[in-house]
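seq as requested:
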Amino acid sequence: MTRDRGTVVARIAGRIGWGLADQGLSSLTNFVLGIVVARTVGLTDFGAFGLAFTAYLMVAGLSRAVTAQPLLIRYSGVPTADWRRGAAAATGTALLVGVACAIVALVVAIATDGSLRSAFLALALVLPGLIVQDAWRFAFFAHGRGRDAFLNDLVWTIVQLSGFALAIALGAGTVFWAVIAWGGAATLAALVGAVQARLVPRPLAARAWSLEHRDLLPPYIGEVAAYILVGQLLLYAVGLVSGLATVGALRAAQILLGPLNVVVQGFYLVAVPGAVQVLRTSARRFTELCVLAGLVLAAAAIAWTLFLVLLPESFGQALLGDV
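struct tokens:
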């Protein structure tokens, strides 16, 4: 019994470790993107980047509500054949979401000018790849393949850093090329994800996927809508009132939340599949797990908030420069 319990604990610890490592890499790519743009462009251009990145976060949230979250709940711990069917449908649906929102981003680019047009034009070109790559991460964790998710994000990170270095060496340190390097690397990682899974996304399965999970979609979409209205559209409102420079300053401050996001999202990637399997055996243990997870994440949020409050202002200046 003790040996079995030790094996279970080791397995859970391993999953959490892969979850944190994968989310750490994913957040690192976004963090590096923010730092590179902040140190190579002005505050106004960084504000344009901030609005484009916020648009990506909104689309990613919508895609996760429609694809990744149902996949984690309904296809965690299932036979491989069922997982393959679910993963193909989920990533295919994510591809459709990415393409549809890329068209919207293109319309925004056409309707604007200057740095805002450059940022949204680049986003339109790479958004489908970004969203599909994100869907593969969740698909791998649903199947207990955290290592594959980590390797996929490692590909994204290496290619992105190489792209940044090349752009800077060629004197192309602009918002447009920074977003292209970031999203282009994600697109390559999305293709690698298909090779890893030995699956091809099935966009034609999107309608069947939506019908299969129609009981889950309204609450998840509602949650994302609240998140977007409260957290993300605020930047657009600030931009309308105070201009892109203020948006750039706010986006720079948000970069410092990166380490906390690593903990929260990494924990989520492994907690949901684990909770689904616990619920199948014991409702009481499921409730205890949820309470424990909430307490752990709340403590992490409080600790990081206090750290940021006490952080010297000189640290932010050294990290982000004038921005």
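Residues 163 and 181 are 5 Å apart (CA to CA).
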